[in-house]
Design goal:
The protein has about 400 residues and is mainly α. It has 17 helices and 3 strands.
């Protein structure tokens, strides 16, 4: 515990100096103070000329997008022949996120002190999952770290693109529903009561639709705090439980696959991630049984995670991947047939990659179709709700001539 606290107190310093041959050298070091940096470098035979504390501007937390960009930058630099530690320096200094810069410098320090890159990544499971670390380890052992980083970057970019498309498909209808609710609430609480005061002097019976709207408005005015409290509290409790309860997560994962309209899109996105992960792991030389450990978790859905466990168990007892996938009843026939061709031809990574490409395109097309379909439907719903309220409030005005 004390060691962890001591490490957290360390600061990153940039230094410049000359080695024993008089050659200018520079680098970065994490230490508790500038004095420790100078003392350590002097013991290494370096005549220090400048030590400067690094200040990483920006802030926030490290996101998956940050890790994806870091992976792509590392892959590009290592393919260009930039040494590993220098690549870390370049990426860290160019990072706009202070949290990411600190994370990268911590990893670099671990590598400098003798840890392998995969071991250094495994210390930060919040940012680097098992799949990521396994692929890095495979790249280090095979001497093809630059190629594996490139595969990882491509994998994360494609996975992130699918997630982004699903979110964009859901965002539009949800945002419109929220705005519609707010507008309706404003009309009910502020506009309708004003009409109600006018109608008191009409001296005639109000139409049925108007009476219904006024009754709803009275309830809103009397209980607005309860309505907003119940909705806000319900949403908070729902998302809080979803995030922390495994049973809730399982229920929502299963429900998502069966949800009207959006369910098929989510299923296609899940299959795309499943096959993309399988392709990436198998191409890296990871044995199939070991690869399936990462594949199930990367799919992002409990039903497919359980199916992957079943597939792994059947393969361990001698079954083929094709037969095991068919027994789960969660993969379309086309996916199973493509995987069968890959197994028979010895090109499982290539065929699973083609399946992933196909379903990623299917997700793109489905999201575009949904966007085109949802827009007029939402406009119609908004028109009926808001327009219905307005018409109901103007009906008495249309009868005004008869009263006069």
């Amino acid at each position: 515990m004390a060691a962890e606290k001591k490490k957290d107190d360390q600061i990153t310093f940039s230094w410049e100096g000359k080695d024993k041959s008089g050659k200018l050298v520079r680098g970065d070091m994490r230490a508790a103070s500038e004095t420790i940096v100078r003392t350590t470098l002097r013991r290494q035979g370096i005549n220090v000329t400048k030590v400067k504390k690094q200040s990483f501007r920006g802030g926030g937390k490290v996101t998956d997008k940050d890790i994806t960009l870091f992976t792509r930058q590392m892959a590009t630099m290592m393919k260009s022949g930039v040494p590993l530690l220098q690549a870390f320096d370049i990426v860290a200094k160019g990072a706009s996120n202070a949290a990411l810069a600190k994370l990268l410098m911590d990893i670099k320090t671990d590598v400098e002190t003798g840890s392998s890159l995969s071991q250094a990544f495994r210390k930060y499971p919040l940012y680097f999952d098992q799949l990521y670390c396994n692929l890095i380890e495979a790249g280090e052992q095979a001497g093809i770290l630059d190629q594996l980083l490139d595969r990882l970057a491509t994998y994360k970019e494609k996975t992130q693109a699918i997630i982004s498309k699903i979110k964009s498909a859901l965002f539009y209808p949800v945002s419109v529903i929220v705005v519609a609710f707010i507008v309706t609430a404003v009309i009910m609480i502020f506009v309708v009561p004003a009409f109600k005061e006018v109608f008191k002097n009409f001296g005639a019976d109000l139409p049925g639709p108007t009476l219904v709207v006024i009754a709803i408005s009275d309830y809103f005015v009397a209980n607005w705090w309860l309505i907003f409290g119940v909705i806000g509290g319900g949403l908070y409790a729902f998302f809080y439980t979803w995030k922390r309860s495994e049973k809730m997560q399982i229920f929502m994962d299963r429900l998502a696959l069966r949800f009207p309209v959006f369910g098929p899109v989510i299923r296609k996105a899940t299959i795309a991630r499943w096959t993309r992960t399988l392709s990436t792991m198998f191409a890296a030389g990871v044995p199939l049984v070991e690869a399936l450990d990462s594949v199930g978790g990367a799919a992002g859905n409990y039903e497919y995670k359980q199916a992957t466990k079943q597939i792994k168990a059947e393969i361990s007892t001698g079954s083929s991947l094709t037969a095991a996938m068919q027994n789960t009843n969660v993969f379309p026939n086309m996916v199973v047939q493509m995987i069968a061709i890959g197994e028979e031809s010895g090109q499982l990574d290539a065929m699973s990659g083609k399946v992933a490409d196909f379903y990623e395109q299917e997700v793109d097309d489905a999201v575009e179709a949904l966007s085109s379909l949802m827009e007029p439907m939402i406009m119609v719903i908004l028109g009926v709700v808001i327009g219905g309220i307005i018409v109901a409030m103007y009906l008495p005005i249309f009868k005004l001539g008869a009263v006069v």
